[in-house]
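hi!! sorry for the late reply, been swamped w classes. u asked for the two structures so here they r. pasted raw, havent cleaned anything up. first the sequence of the first protein and right below it the C-alpha cells
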Amino acid sequence: MDSFETPKKQNEFRNTLVLLSLLAGLVGGVIGQAFVTPWFQENILRREPFEQERAQIVFDEQSAIISAVEKVNPAVVSIVITKDLPKLDEFFSPFGFYYSEPSGDLERQEIGAGSGFIISADGLIVTNKHVVSDPDAAYTVITQSGDKYSARVTANDPFNDIAVVKIEAANLPVVSLGDSDRLKLGQRVVAIGNALGEFQNTVTSGIVSGIGRDITASGGAESENLFEVIQTDAAINPGNSGGPLADLEGNVIGVNSAVSLEGQLIGFAIPINQVKDVIEDVKQYGRVRRAFLGVRYITVDADIAAEENLAVDYGALIVAGDTASEPGVVPGSPADKAGLRSGDIILEVDGQKVTVENSLSQIMRGHSPGDTVPLRFRRADEVRDVSVTLGEAE
C-alpha cells in the first residue's frame, strides 16, 4: 500500500522549513554583519574616494604645470643666428645634374638657433655661451609675442657655458629665479625653448633625473666641462640651448645646455645658483668677473703621482707648456706674487683640498676677484703656506 503524508504532516514539515530558513537568515545576517560588511566597506566603498583622490592629484599636477608655464613662458625668447656667407649660384650641367658655385656675393643666411630668458625689464637675457659664440654672426631675439630685436653679446662666463645678451626694449616680462640647491630627485620640472630652431616656446615636462653630474659637452670643434649639472628627462632638443628649466612654482632652476645623443631623454641644465653671480656681475659691472690665480697645471691622481714620482697623489701640479708663451706661472699674476713656480704642487686653497673631484678651477669658481685666501703648496719635500689675493680673469 502506498503511503502518503497527511496534510497535518505536510504542514508540520512546512513549518519546520520556514523555521530553518529564518534561523539560516539570522545566522547569515550575523556573519554578514561581522565579516562581509567590513570587507565590503574596506574594498568596495572606499575605492571610489581613492579614485577621486588619484584624479585630484592628476588634476592638481596638470594645473601646476599649466600655471608654471603661464608664469615663465612670456619671458622665454628664441635666438636666431645669421651670418653673411657667399651666395651660391646653381647651374645645370650637360650631364643632367645641378651643381653650385660661389657667386662672389654675400647674403645673410640663418646658420643656427637657440633660446634664452629675460632677466631684466630693460632687455638682459641669459642664454648659453655656445649659442652666441660666433663673433662674426648677428643675433636676433624673438619674444613670445612675436616682437623681434637685434641683440648684442654683453658678457660671456669664462668658466661656464653661460652668456648674457642685451636688447633695447622696456617693460619686458621677466622670470623668477629659484634655488637649485633645494632640488630633489624625482621633482617635476618643465623645459621651454625653441625646439629644433623651428618650434618656438615649446614646452616639455619631466622630472629631475640626477643632481650633481659632471659632463663634457661638445658641439662642432668646441667642448666644455660642465660641473654639478642637473639631469632631466624633460625633452631637450637642438635649439633648446639657453632656455629655462623651471619648477612647478614657475621659478627658473636651470639653464638647458646639453643632451645625450646616445640615450633617450637624457638632458642637462646648468643650476641657476651657478648663474646668479654672473647675472649680478653683469648688472653691476657690465661683465662677468671670475677669480684668477695664474697657473698652468695638471690635476694629480694616483697615476700622475706614480708617473712623475710625486710624494702626494692629489693637488695641482704646476707645469709649463712646450713654448715660452706657456709658462707654468703667469708673470705678474697672483701666483707669481705669492712665489709659486713650476714644479710646485698646490695642495689646498682656502682650506679645500685640491683633488680630481674638487679641482683647482672648481675651487676658483667659489671665489671672487679681490678675495684673499690661504694657499698650501708642496715644493720638493717641504710644505709651505702663503696668502694670495686673487685677480680677475680676462
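now the second protein. again sequence first, C-alpha cells right under
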Amino acid sequence: MSQEPLLSASDITAGYGAVPVIRGVSVAAVPGEVALVIGPNGAGKSTLVKAINGELELLGGTVTLSGTDVSLLTEDQRAARGLGYVPQSRDVFPSLTVTENLQMGGYRLDREEVAKRTSEIFGRFPALERLRKRPAGTLSGGERKLLAIARALVARPAVLMLDEPTANLAPAVARRVLNEVIGGLAAGGTAVLLIEQRIALALDLATRVYVLVDGTPRFTGTAAEFRALPDTGAVFFTRGGNHADAT
C-alpha cells in the first residue's frame, strides 16, 4: 500500500447475538484508494461493514481509525472520528426534502457549519441543488443514492463505507455512481471501503480486493492480482480452496 490505512479492521468476528456470521476477516482502507469487498449473497459483507461501523458488537478482532482502536466506541463516536457509512437501504429520510436530508447529515455540526457544508455539497453535486426542495421519497433511484452519499459527506468523513450503492440502479446510472461519484471521492483523498455486486465495473476503481465466502476470507490482494487469477470463479464457488493473502 502506498500509505498507512486510515481504517483497519483486523480478524473481525461478528454476527447477530452470539452466533458469528463472519470469522477472522481483515480489511483496510487507504486514503485516495478504493478497497473492494465482494462475494456471493450471504457471504457476510453487510455484516462486516455493520461490525466496523459499530452497529454490531464485535465477537473478536479490532477496528482502528487513524491508528486509534475504536472497537468499543458507539456508531456515533466512530462517525465523530471520521467514519462515514452509506447503507444499502434506508439511506435517506423519504419525507424530508433534499436540503433537510443534507442538514441531517451535519447533526453534530453547528448551524453555520451545516449551512456552509450544505452549500458546498450543492456546489459539488449540481443535480441535487436543482432538487433541493423535493422530498427525498419522490426522487429516482439514482438521485436517492446520490443524496445518501452526499448526506454522508456533509460531516467530511475521512473514510466512507458504502454497502452496494448501485443495488437496483439501471446499468448506466450505476456506472455514473461508481465512476463519477465514488471514483471522484477516492481521487479527492477519501479512503473508500466499497461493497459491490457489479464486480467488473467496481474493479476499474479498486486498488485492493477482498473476497468473502461463507463468512470467511477467500482472497486478499491487489485488483491486478485478482484479475490475474486463472479462474476468478473458483474463488467464489470452490469450497475448501483458500486464496487469501495473495500478496
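hope this helps!! also noticed smth abt the second:
The first helix runs from residue 45 to 53.
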